[in-house]
Specification:
single chain; 311 residues; alpha/beta; 12 helices; 9 strands; 41% helix; 14% strand
Length: 311
């Protein structure tokens, strides 16, 4: 079983007329390939193009959330994860858990009331920024010395109160440390890798990984080749290398997956789409991981975090 904490499939479904229930040669994720990949919980990102900031960002987000609800209603194959207990309910029903996460706080349009309304519509996680600056703070491509804004701080506090998962992927380092100081709950980096192995600005330093672990959070390994290797080309072994590194640094309780499928232009060799997830287990077995360690990495770490926060 696998938990994947980040895919951009909703963005793709909005862009084209796609039958999500049928196995496709396009993109990386559809219902049939999810079943082949043994993914039992998928986090679907609501990503709004930064061009929509202060225009109709909230409207676009609502359309994508509506698309998720439409998929759930039409397929009868998913259960929306609203509380931690829904994870086990989905398993009992033989359904795939679907958790909604907004990628980029610009959809809040400067209003915490919109955060609360998105929560009521089923959103349970928020990536505070995409790579650019928004009302909450600076992304990795923003003003490097600036961290969270006063509104960003207000949002983190309100997310803690509501029971939402705070996601620091894409956030710049100053903002990262602001969140660590502010949040009373564990935080995640849903789709970020180890900067020691690949120097891309989207990756995490050893100090950041340690801080996430100390707070009880999880780092989701991103499958984008440019985040796995400085050379920009990668394979399954590189994903395993990042898992090894984080496990050696902080232990196997703090790493999972945030593939970024349908949001990346190329994939590692051997992980061409979501159906290939089981190859990771084969690789971990070859590297000497125990059954218990593999279970933590593939699904239990993120499941446990969800159950802690979504109460």
């Amino acid at each position: 079983m696998f938990v994947d904490f980040h895919c951009d499939t909703l963005y793709r479904l909005m862009d084209k007329k796609i039958d999500f229930t049928e196995r496709s040669k396009e993109g990386h994720v559809d219902l049939q390939r999810m079943k082949e990949g043994k993914v039992h919980l998928q986090v679907f990102a609501v990503f709004v193009d930064p061009k929509q900031m202060r225009k109709n960002a909230a409207t676009m987000a609502l359309k994508m959330i509506d698309k998720m609800h439409e998929v759930i209603e039409k397929t009868k194959e998913f259960r929306l994860i609203l509380k931690g207990e829904d994870i086990d309910k989905a398993k009992q029903e033989g359904k795939i858990g679907a958790l909604l996460s907004i990628e980029g706080g610009e959809v809040l349009e400067g209003e915490t009331s919109l955060l609360r309304m998105f929560y009521k519509l089923g959103v349970r996680a928020l990536t505070l920024t995409w790579s650019l600056r928004n009302d909450l703070g600076d992304g990795v491509d923003g003003v490097k010395e600036a961290g969270l804004t006063s509104f960003g701080r207000e949002v983190v506090k309100e997310m803690n109160r509501l029971g939402m998962i705070v996601d620091v992927s894409h956030l710049n380092e100053k903002g990262f440390w602001d969140v660590l100081e502010l949040s009373e709950k564990p935080i995640i980096a849903s789709h970020s890798n180890a900067k020691t192995l690949c120097s891309h600005r989207r990756n995490l330093t050893d100090e950041q990984i340690k801080a996430i672990a100390q707070k009880g959070g999880v780092v989701g390994i991103n499958f984008a080749p440019q985040f796995l290797r400085d050379e920009g080309q990668a394979a399954l072994e590189d994903v395993l290398n990042h898992i090894d590194y984080i496990c050696e640094l902080v232990g196997e309780d703090y790493v999972g997956f945030g593939s970024d499928f349908d949001g990346i232009s190329s994939t590692p060799e051997g992980l061409e789409d979501i159906s290939h997830f089981p190859k990771i287990v084969e690789g971990l077995i070859k590297r000497g991981y125990t059954e218990e360690q593999i279970a933590k990495i593939t699904h239990k770490n993120f499941e446990n975090l969800i159950k802690k926060i979504l109460i």
